[in-house]
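**User:** Here is a favour to ask of a fellow structure person. Please take any protein you like and set down a full record of it. No explanation is needed for now; the record alone will do.

**Assistant:**
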Amino acid sequence: MVAIAFYSITGQTERFIKKTQLSAHQIDDANPKYDMGKSYILIVPSYQDFMMDSVVDFLTYKDNKKNIIGIIGCGNRNFNDLFAQTAKKITATLKVPILYLLEFSTLTSRKIVHDLSAGESTKQVQKPKELRGNISFLSDFRD
């Protein structure tokens, strides 16, 4: 089983993870430096860069950048170009694939997270149309 790490400020991403009933590490603002120690999927909501310091600290801690196998971006498609912007920026920076872009309440999203965490191949996951065009990098991403 692939590990999962996620970040949540408003609680939406956390509620989604609880609905999947999968074990996952929540990135904590008070102590973001946590070593995943194995391959994992990162699930992040759509926030502006300045709100993502804890995720940046988590990614740059020990081998977390090396162990990430993919990203799932969350949000609401009403955000238009800002939908899943955090996932898009991290994938462009780290050169890891976006496995899925999801809206929180869909049953399909829960199934995909279950399948990916069980080690299912990501080759069958269709890349979303939102991945076209220019993607800017997280302005403060640190090595």
Summary: Confidence is low (pLDDT under 50) at residues 130-143.
